[in-house]
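User: Okay, second chain of the day. Same drill as before: sequence in, structure tokens out.
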Amino acid sequence: MKIIHVWFLRLAMIFVTCPLPEAHAWTRDQFTIAPTLMKLRMLGEEIHEPQVWQLAGRLAYQEGFGSSGFQKRASNWSLQPIINYDTNVNNGFSNDAINIGGLDFLVDEQFRREQAPVVGASLSGSHVWGLSRKLSFNVDHTARYVHAWNGNYDKWSVAVQPCVAYFIASASRAYACGATERAVTELTERKEKSISLGASTAYTIGTYFQSSQITMKRSTISSGVDYVQDSITYQHETLLGDGTLVGVKVKLSEAVDNVFVSREFFHLTAAKIVAGRRLEAGYIQENRRGGMFLNEARKEKLRGIIVSARISNSLSMRVGRFHNEASNSFNNDQFTVFDININLLKLR
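Assistant: Same drill. Structure tokens below.
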């Protein structure tokens, strides 16, 4: 990982300081769908216009830029009821029997997957403070709880992530974050603490607006076994002329001796504004390896497609289908994801 650390520092310095050619004028749909740093890069093209200058100033203000001292800048909350069907509410095994030496052995009922309608709620928030002219502090947090209607199953999770950001330029940031997460089901419990360092920037290549982000992360995880894992993540987005935002995210994680862990993660997305609403489709693949299962090296490949739509400022929905292909057929699996999200705090 020392080699990765060196290359990370070199890449970060290159892509936050290297000057690139300017793009042409942008449209309303392009601006609507663009991430914040890309918006600031787009506004920089026409910063001489008073209205554009004011909008750029508001975006930077909400990020905590330009503070003369400790100042509260922005705070957003989301409260969502949860009513859906959970295909694995207890995080149990998907198959009822396992074949060993040609013989089938039944899995104890308490360890089998349970499906049930669930009801609950999630509460999340994001808060930003300015520390100095080029330094800000933000905290993201979320809590989620659901209970099965027809069974004695609870499922909950909490996560908190504080970050410090340094404004390298109008559309370039460096950041350092800490995070703690905990997720509990009937059969499993997972805890993770992490620290991460990264940099992000927006720029232009030809007539296209681009954004890049690179992050180094070290995680301490407890999930039946305790281990430490380093990872590096690169994310790139390109804004096309018709208002389509395409992106790719690649995460590479180191191997952990005798532990089954995620090694490579890929996420391809395409989003577009249609009738004033955001539609997005994505492909996900996660390769996991490590440890043994029935004296055989364990390998799995999870693949899936997700489509999401924002119906209004307070309502969105998501549907997806996943398939897990494992080296041992007992761990093969397929499942559907379906969510309807309503932010009660944005209802009008």
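DSSP finds four helices and 16 strands in the chain.

User: Thanks, on to the next one.
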